Prior knowledge:
CATH superfamily: Aldolase class I
CATH architecture: Alpha-Beta Barrel
Number of helices: 12
Strand order of the largest sheet: 1-4-5-6-7-10-11-12
Distance between the termini: 15 Å
CATH class: Alpha Beta
Low-confidence stretches: none
Strand content: 15-25%
Largest sheet: 8 strands, parallel, barrel
Number of domains: 1
Radius of gyration: 17 Å
Amino acid sequence: MKTIRVIPRLDIKGPNLVKGIHLEGLRVLGKPEDFARFYYDNGADELFFQDTVASLYDRNSLHDIITKTAKEIFIPLTVGGGLRTIDDIRNVLRAGADKVAINTAAIKNPHFIREASLKFGSSTIVIAIEAIKNSDGRYLAFMDNGREYTGLEVVAWAKRAEELGAGEIVITSVDKEGTGEGYDLDLIRSVSEAVSVPVIAHGGASSPENIVNAILHGKADAVSIASLLHYSIMQSFINNSSDFLKEGNISFLNSGKIPKKITPCTLKEIRTALINANISTRL
Length: 283
């Protein structure tokens, strides 16, 4: 049986960890370095850093955070957002990332996937797909946090990305992201069954049971989790809230409120649920 990876995802705006719903309405939760260190200490398999505003500036601004994190955390780091060129990829890898996640650049120039995979190896190149379910039941691929339709159908695009050399695919349900309504199992399964590379499920988890379902019924190889984990430890890092005034909406951070559909849990609780479902995990 394949070993399932549990990957906390940290969406970052400026110096802060943020979270939204449907990839929008970003609210400050804390400092990414605090969360990253906590997840590393508590058994995360990997970490996924996403620059949420990179598309606005056509650049990734996480270099300082990556460098600092890589010096203290010794699990794979995937970095996404604003990576448009071979030099962009080279720079974040030199900063300490192990893998890069690409969306916009790959859609605008699919052969960029082949160029990047030949240069850095397929295992380094992750294709990020933002999926929205159409009224006719098809899943369509989007860019710019689900705002811009690409003209591509998700499964066809995933297969094409694999053919061009992508080593992994992370599939985000924009419809489910941040809602706590559970993963879109039909979406995950359709991609997982269409490609042979690992598929990482992201968007909608509200409980360990959702994660088990993403693996058993969605056939995912890994799960990327944000709200479910972040809200369980957010209050632990609130003492320095005055540091957050420069970026984002901190009223949510100070309120201590948690979306009703999400039951925060720990990595340990997720591991326990996976073990109880006879799913192989690293720890």
